[in-house]
Amino acid sequence: MAELVELLAAGRSHAGWESVSITRSIEHAAGGFSLVVSERWPGVEAPRQVRAGDACELTVGGQTVITGFVDEAESDLDAASHLISVAGRDKVADLIDCGAVRKSGQWRGLRIEQIAAELAAPFDIRVSADVDTGKALTSFALQEGESVFEAISRAARIRALLLVSDGKGGLLITRAGETRVATVLEMGVNLLSCRVKLDLKDRFSSYLLKGQAPGTDWLSGASAAQVAAKAADPGVRRYRPLVITADAPDIAATLQQRAQWEANSRAARSLTVTGKVQGWRHAGGLWAPNTRVKVVSEEQHVSDELLVTGVEFSLAEGGGSTTTLTMTRADAFTLLPLKAPDAQGAFWTLPAKGEAK
């Protein structure tokens, strides 16, 4: 049985959707939705009054998954039917779409969440962090023409942090999740399909971060002007170095974090495992991004715990409800050095013959 999907907009709850697509991802901070239905549904006499620009809240089985605004509202009328299409995104989308504006454009001695909160305040978007964001930044300045989200993302990269929507209209500063889903996904059992893609074009054998440390009474001259850090990706077997200039002055220890983050996040984005399952829930609740799940597809040499980076709930007339999970390596977006690939060149391993999965 399909989950009840309700859109609260213009002071009224709208349900009975015939077609549903809901996406949430740690790669794209603003979740989105697209809904289609006939203009009226049983039990409601008035036609739907959903307009582009309306504030809205989308729930699945009573659980809020998106809080934001309606971007599009379309009416499609012909002799046989009258369909209403509605699409929208999380409130965080305004940070992605809009430019960063501040009189001075520069901060000194503030933590990343403080900078983010100040930039997000004009949009009435709260900022929270569920991890330690590190020491205050010595200095941070806006770049000409960048969006609010781009500015906050630059600051977040300095401390190897993720920016995601909290689903309730706020921006959450976090890192790769540790929550594990008890359900094992296995091809031919509960995994309807599985696609594995490995793309190495944006990965490099080494990452050299160069920057400047803030000068003090005890640190000056060349020692302050030149700091560097290096991280390696053992999965790239030929010589492919990448040199990156740090976004802001900082200490060498932070540059080392950033170098390792660059290696890990690029390795993560190179591997995409896409799986489809029936329904929108596992044994513990709704599927959600930034969780971990064991995936087994022996023909594709996959038998490992993966990080869920994106979730798409779909409902199509006659097709039932399905969830498409986008996944990558479980060590993605961490600050731990990357492990080397196995002899097959993969970052997962099949169990040995006779070994339990």
UniProtKB/TrEMBL annotation:
Residues 253-334 form the Baseplate hub protein gp44/GpP-like C-terminal domain. Residues 5-90 form the Baseplate hub protein gp44-like N-terminal domain. Residues 93-175 form the Baseplate hub protein gp44/GpP-like second domain. InterPro entries: Baseplate-like_2-layer_sand, Baseplate_GpP, Gp44/GpP-like_2nd, Gp44/GpP-like_C, GpP-like_N. Signal peptide: none annotated. Pfam families: Gp44-like_2nd (PF22255), GpP-like_1st (PF21683), GpP_4th (PF21929). This is Phage baseplate assembly protein. It comes from Pelomonas lactea. The lineage of its organism: Bacteria, Pseudomonadati, Pseudomonadota, Betaproteobacteria, Burkholderiales.
